[in-house]
């Protein structure tokens, strides 16, 4: 029996009557949901939260949050004081894992989130003991992008980044933890990301990655700077976000996004609940709602994110799906590397790659 049906039917029993006042009091307060600020928050405010409230009767207080460690620190400090700045938060994966290691996320009832079964295993999050605590919220692809005036034919492999003909032509993300160039290099040249499980393996991958340095014109943190250079042809090749590149192409810019033979990088954010939240039932209902195929299709259409559920479960057309995703097997980031060996990786990255 679904948890919501159980709670409803329980009102006729003594236990239900005793539990009802606290549940009703909790329902009077809006569910505080934190999403990445700016465009993400605006899109959720317009296209997701009103429909959720209409479907469930649960009001939402929208909170714009940082995407990195800053929000994790705020949640940790608040939890120590028994407070939750947001009940549900969209967390980047490294921050999610750090929160998991600290036991920050509330344990959830899997029976209250049956739609988790729509998600692949890497989007269902559990503690080491198997306790369920969160799901994938949204995802997006980093692909190989080119200027179509400079490259009339698209490259088919990430190996193009190492091609001597592309000397001084590349724009690549500047940080190890958000470029995922280690994963791209490992998959392209070493058969997969397993090699990143040891420091010796990471060093081998870094040495191969360092070989493309003469081809890099810009290590970028400012996405707008690279996008402008890509559109003008000043920097005609690099890595960028599939959906943003597609929007630029739709606006008439001479750019394309290619899913290489080895796969594109699939990055994501996840839903987690603060252990200090007093709205666990409502939070579970929200997480379950967001794992519905029709909601994921709405996100694809109006937010531009790739669905976290299997494509076949959605009603997305081929064109709509291609605008945000691919059926091709993705390169999944080796997030644990940036948690367990963060300082060491960043030092080696600075010395060998961007230094």
Your description of this structure?
The protein is α/β, with parallel strands linked by helices. The protein has 2 domains: 3-139 and 269-322, Periplasmic binding protein-like II (D-Maltodextrin-Binding Protein, domain 2), CATH 3.40.190.10; 140-266 and 328-354, D-Maltodextrin-Binding Protein, domain 2 (3-Layer(aba) Sandwich), CATH 3.40.190. The protein is 42% helix and 18% strand. The chain is built from 16 helices and 10 strands. It has helices at residues 3-9, 14-28, 39-47, 49-56, 69-80, 93-101, 176-179, 181-190, 199-210, 223-232, 242-250, 280-290, 293-302, 318-322, 335-340, 342-354; strands spanning 31-36, 60-65, 88-92, 124-126, 132-147, 170-173, 216-220, 237-241, 255-258, 265-273. Strands 1, 2, 3, 4, 5, 6, 7, 8, 9 and 10 form a 10-stranded mixed sheet that branches. Helix 8 crosses helix 9 and helix 9 packs parallel to helix 16. The termini are far apart. Residues 1-26 have low confidence and may be disordered.
Task: Please sum up the structure shown.
By secondary structure, the protein is α/β, with parallel strands linked by helices.
Descriptive key words:
single chain; 355 residues; D-Maltodextrin-Binding Protein, domain 2; ten-stranded mixed beta sheet; globular; disordered N terminus
